[in-house]
Specification:
alpha/beta, 17% strand, binds zinc ion
Length: 201
């Protein structure tokens, strides 16, 4: 009898495990690679560093201070926490994006010939602080005061999450030309940045 109870119990527990779903990240299968993937100030830059716990995610850094990989990993966790809180991730598309994204950090802003501001108004020849380059790669300026919470990292990750989920990164944000980005996405970014600031990042 006791044996049966134990079996039923462990089956129940298993179901509980599998239902925890997309928020479970902390597989450390690649830990040997992660451990050896470190920024080395004596080697030439830029350098590519893997982001622990996010499978093949990586960053290209212009120096070892921009940014240490534990800070980027924490930012990814915060982003996913906020994304799932607001929008869920039933098909794991956003998790999948985070597990293969490459963030290229820059030390100076760029000029974009054309684009849209957050309200969807078009502009030309503007300074920009981030840009999605491909399905898996984004360039992000290091941010005001060299703080990740003052960078466009979360903004660009929202573009990439939308592309992973719906096939379009929605370049005009809250504008109506392209679909996907809503005011809730803008609020989510603000809250995620606030979480980063709790860590002085
Ligand atoms: Zn944008």
């Amino acid at each position: 009898m006791l044996k049966k109870v134990v079996i039923v119990f462990s089956l129940l527990l298993c179901f509980t495990c599998s239902s925890t779903g997309p928020s479970v990240f902390l597989s450390n299968e690649n830990k040997a690679i992660y451990k050896s993937s470190v920024c080395d100030p004596s080697k030439p830059f830029p350098q590519m560093i893997l982001i622990p716990f996010f499978e093949n995610a990586s960053q290209i850094v212009p120096n070892c201070k921009t940014y240490p990989k534990h800070e980027t990993a924490l930012a990814f966790f915060i982003f996913y926490h906020k994304w799932t809180e607001y929008f869920g991730d039933r098909d794991y598309a956003v998790r999948g994006m985070l597990e293969k994204v490459m963030v290229q950090w820059g030390t100076s802003k760029k000029v974009s010939k054309k684009g849209y501001n957050i309200k969807g108004e078009p502009y030309e020849n503007h300074n920009i602080i981030g840009r999605v380059e491909t399905d898996t790669m984004t360039w992000v300026w290091q941010g005001y005061d060299h703080r990740m919470s003052q960078s466009a990292l979360f903004h660009e990750l929202v573009h990439m999450a939308l592309r992973a989920k719906y096939g379009s990164a929605d370049p005009d944000h809250e504008g109506l030309k392209y679909r996907g980005w809503t005011p809730a996405h803008s609020v989510m970014i603000i809250e995620a940045k606030q979480m980063l600031r709790a860590f002085n990042l």
